[in-house]
Amino acid sequence: MIKLKTFFASRKSWTLPYLIFSVIFVIVPLLLIVVYAFTDDAGHLTLANFGKFFAHPEAMNTFVYSIGIAILTTLGCILLGYPAAWILSNCKKLGYARTLVMLFILPMWVNILVRTLATVALFDFFRLPLGEGALIFGMIYNFIPFMIYPIYNTLQKMDHSYVEAAQDLGANSFQVFWKVVFPLSMPGVVSGVMMVFMPTISTFAIAELLTMNNIKLFGTTIQENINNSLWNYGAALSLIMLFLIAVTSLFNTDDSSETERGGGVW
To answer: Which site among 35, 100, 129, 253 is 20 to 30 Å from 26 CA-CA?
Structure first.
């Protein structure tokens, strides 16, 4: 009994549930993906699964096409999300700005499939064709809140003394934005890019619903192989996608120390 009390009194003991959860639902699945990716049906080590991917033009084309869709979606979210975040951050009434931010986040409370089905109904109502345009529209609609909020949060916490200093030195509005506000907001932009680009690469339900299965993304290819019990090849494709996500994450560096020193401003 005393040992049990000592165990629960220690702060480290409270991390045990999270450790168990991470092992079961994160570490073990990742290890299984690696094992399946480098083995064949008989359990022998092989690189044939990766060779199959590079040998099939269809899989390679789908992979490159998915990256292109992810880039277009990310650029669209930046072009639409940055002005929205900037306007919200400059609202003089803080309660009004928070209300608008909540309105942007509110659709995230609805399941992504329900939102995508609503988009399909919207295109059907206006008699617009489903296809690549509908796919990019649906991607931007679903992921733009993940771009707006980090940029808005960064702009809200920005030290406005830099802006005042630039104005005192004679900078006009454009120069203040381009040389002060935009560089200081880059951590939020990078976070938004990571939150939009990475899930866009792996999604498949949005493409299936908004293109009537006429356009296949890389996530759809992985799903089809898993559903057809091609576990080894599907695991290899998943590992390739994870590698791409890991490489993309390397660009998400912490520039806070540089920003504090003013190195990213001038």
So the answer is: 253
Backbone angles phi, psi at 39, to 5 degrees: -130, 160
Token pair for 59:
């899989």
Tokens at 177, concatenated: 């934005």
Q: What is the pLDDT of residues 207-242, one digit of tens each?
A: 989 998 888 899 889 988 988 888 999 999 999 988
Rounded Cα–Cα distance for residues 138 and 144 (Å) = 10
What pLDDT, in 10s, does the model give residues 115-137? 999 999 999 999 999 999 999 99
Residue 45, classed as helix, strand or coil, is strand
The residue type at 124:
D
Element (H, E) at 20: helix 16-22
Spatial distance between the Cα atoms of 66 and 71, rounded to a whole number of angstroms: 9
Q: How many CB atoms lie within 10 A of CB 232?
A: 21
Give the H or E element holding residue 195.
helix 186-202
Q: Cα–Cα distance between 244 and 61 in angstroms, integer?
A: 15
Helix (H, G, I), strand (E, B) or coil at 109: helix
Convert 244-265 to b/e letters by CB count within 10 Å (16 or more is b). beeebeeeeeeeeeebeeeebb
Identify the bridge partners of residue 45 per DSSP, sorted by sequence position. Answer: 39
CB 203 within 8 A of CB 218: no
> What's CA 16's distance to the chain center, in Å?
29
Amino acid at 71: I
Residue 39's DSSP bridge partners are 45
Place of tokens 């992921």: 143
Please say whether the beta carbons of 60 and 54 come within 8 A.
Answer: yes
Separation CA 108–CA 128 (nearest Å) = 25
